[in-house]
Amino acid sequence: MLLENFYSEASSKIHFSRKQASDFAKKIAGDFNPIHDEKTKRFCVPGDLLFALLLNKYGISQKMRVTFSGMVSDGVSLHFNDSTGESIAIVDDKDKEYLSLVRSGKTSRDEALIHSLTCRYVEFSGQTFPHILVPLMREHQVMINPARPLVIYESMVIDINDLNIEQPALELSDSSLVANGKRGKVCLKFNLLSNGQVIGKGEKNMVLSGLRPYNESEIQQLVNGYDAQKSAATA
């Protein structure tokens, strides 16, 4: 994965075209969330792309918490300023914050490790829908609006015991959904492994919007449409 293909940078400012962000979502992350389609009205840059950029710019720390506070559109330029601090805010030209990173412990700038962890995380994240979310929604008898499905990042956490690792892997360890009216919060917990041994853990937190009573046939239609888009993109 050549991350540079999916953003443009000038004067320490980064912006994304709709095509760049959409290509990352579909071709790299396997993410066909409608809000990442370049033709949609309510377009936003994938959280996985923003996370990949954070790792690329600031390295991998033993403890990291990334919080998403705004949806990045194609008209937004973000400032990824040089920083060695423990708290980093990514803002636009008007100082509006879109995401933040809080980190501690040792930090690795090893390019091979950063690339490997980024790829493994994006692959893991790409399994969220339908493989993880649909069983959760079925269990709790709620579902997103099939006409306007909205699933967005809230935060993610990574805690690594030792950065002296090669070829890390991720595996799901637990998943939960808490519904409150039309909104729901999903937490996906995962283990980080190296050579088959657990060397860390993490979690991905998301918000579901427009929840309604679960309907199996509507969910199946949504999954079928998602799979059709995926097949067309990889044909």
Question: What's this entry about, in short?
Answer:
The chain is of the alpha+beta class.
Topology (elements, then pairings):
Elements: E1 8-10, E2 13-15, H1 18-28, H2 47-58, E3 60-68, E4 77-79, E5 87-91, E6 97-108, H3 111-125, H4 128-140, E7 142-143, E8 150-160, E9 169-180, E10 183-194, E11 197-209, E12 212-213, H5 216-234
Antiparallel strand pairs: 1-2, 2-4, 3-6, 3-8, 5-6, 7-12, 8-11, 9-10, 10-11
Helix pairs in contact: 2-3, 4-5
Describe this structure in words.
The chain has one domain (3-234): Beta Barrel (Porin). It is of the alpha+beta class. It is globular and about 50 Å long. It contains five helices and twelve strands.
Helix content: 25-40%
Under CATH, the topology can be stated as: Porin
The end-to-end distance, rounded to whole angstroms, is 19 Å
Order of helices and strands: EEHHEEEEHHEEEEEEH
Average per-residue pLDDT, rounded, comes to: 93
CATH class: Mainly Beta
Number of helices: 5
Give me the Rg, rounded: 18 Å
- Percentage beta strand: 35-45%
Please give the largest β-sheet. 7 strands, antiparallel
Unreliable residue stretches: none
- Which word captures the global form? globular
By DSSP, the count of extended strands is 12
Query: What is the total domain count?
Result: 1
Order of the strands making up the biggest sheet: 5-6-3-8-11-10-9
